């Protein structure tokens, strides 16, 4: 059993409307020191395999095909266990 | 300027319908080895301060008040720079 963590973030230069909205909300709540805020996704997966190389290949495929929209998002992942 | 990373995850025991849906989609795409998948949020903030203790206090407040719903979500954060 391997545990994988996948981070999907919006590419630099692409507008993040959710982040802008949350930053605006924080400002209006008095947190003026927030200069920028970007929101991404964080996924924890358990994989029923012990083959690290195979798991890595699968995760890359999952990210490319479903988990991230590679036109506007970047992804990175960590494998443990 | 400090950089903070905030992770918001759904509490253990609370149903994650988004994770269940994505796991189902991965299964139907042939990724049968995915045993579980949980989705959380990942936020990168720039804070216009150099006072680590103050920044930490602010981030905790932001999480409690806006960024996480502490009834069903956990949060953790890292500060750097």
Automatic annotation (TrEMBL), chains A, B:
Gene3D superfamilies: Phosphoribosylformylglycinamidine synthase subunit PurS (3.30.1280.10). Its EC number is 6.3.5.3. It holds the Pfam family PurS. Keywords: ATP-binding, Cytoplasm, Ligase, Nucleotide-binding, Purine biosynthesis. GO terms for molecular function: ATP binding; phosphoribosylformylglycinamidine synthase activity. Its main location: cytoplasm. One of its GO terms (biological process) is 'de novo' IMP biosynthetic process. Transmembrane segments: none annotated. Pathway: Purine metabolism; IMP biosynthesis via de novo pathway; 5-amino-1-(5-phospho-D-ribosyl)imidazole from N(2)-formyl-N(1)-(5-phospho-D-ribosyl)glycinamide: step 1/2. It catalyses: N(2)-formyl-N(1)-(5-phospho-beta-D-ribosyl)glycinamide + L-glutamine + ATP + H2O = 2-formamido-N(1)-(5-O-phospho-beta-D-ribosyl)acetamidine + L-glutamate + ADP + phosphate + H(+). The keyword Nucleotide-binding applies. It is found in: Cytoplasm. It is an enzyme of class 6 (ligase). One of its GO terms (cellular component) is cytoplasm. Part of the phosphoribosylformylglycinamidine synthase complex involved in the purines biosynthetic pathway. Catalyzes the ATP-dependent conversion of formylglycinamide ribonucleotide (FGAR) and glutamine to yield formylglycinamidine ribonucleotide (FGAM) and glutamate. The FGAM synthase complex is composed of three subunits. PurQ produces an ammonia molecule by converting glutamine to glutamate. PurL transfers the ammonia molecule to FGAR to form FGAM in an ATP-dependent manner. Belongs to the PurS family. Part of the FGAM synthase complex composed of 1 PurL, 1 PurQ and 2 PurS subunits. This is Phosphoribosylformylglycinamidine synthase subunit PurS. The gene is purS.
